[in-house]
């Protein structure tokens, strides 16, 4: 997903990038493949940044918040964020900060999972969970993150003063080797689905998913994951990224 996103932006080599909410550095790695002049990753978790540094020698990382970036105005040609904007407390403030630190004519872009429709591993999880436990509907990310749709993203970028705003879907295959490969990540307790999976006895949910998930003859589970990607440009100069 990160590589497809960076390719869509079309930012030329030799540019300065800021990766906001970089986490363990997956998007940073994709940015580094574009031959940038420099890459700075920002995340509130020092632990995540330690992993990101190990994965991305040559990139710089600093602890910081999306709503108060530790960067000077106009310091970057591209400001990006992967799977983060819907989790920050004040998305409007965060995107305004993205716009503040991007250079004239630079690109500001992000992507978030399409929890409502296109994130199949999550959609199938909650469909099964709600069938067994209707109260689980309130936890579904598709309901909890209304920002993760085209029009709210477009409005968020436009309200920050960014121009030439474009939103598109990016879909990638997510093939699991077997059912355990699908189910085990939920047991880490990360996110609403993971937290639900480890709360109480979920054996009925596990078995219902085992029955319902599409399974190939070799036991693999072929799904797809769709993200909504949004980009805009500083209004102070014409955009440089390709359409």
Overview of this protein structure:
The structure is a single chain. This protein has 243 residues and is α/β, with parallel strands linked by helices. It folds into two domains: 1-112 and 149-168 and 229-243, Vaccinia Virus protein VP39 (Rossmann fold); 115-145 and 178-219, no CATH class. It has helices at residues 2-9, 26-32, 46-55, 91-101, 120-132, 141-144, 150-159, 179-183, 191-197, 203-212, and strands spanning 16-20, 38-43, 60-63, 76-82, 102-113, 163-176, 221-233. A seven-stranded mixed beta sheet has the order 3-2-1-4-5-7-6, with helices on both faces. Helix 4 links the parallel strand 4 and strand 5. Helix 5 (120-132) crosses helix 10.
Q: Decide which structural class fits the backbone.
A: alpha/beta
The helix-strand sequence is: HEHEHEEHEHHHEHHHE
Give the low-pLDDT segments.
237-243
Per DSSP, the total helix count is: 10
Strand order, biggest sheet? 3-2-1-4-5-7-6
**First-last Cα distance:** 18 Å
Q: How many beta-strand runs?
A: 7
Q: Averaged pLDDT, please?
A: 95
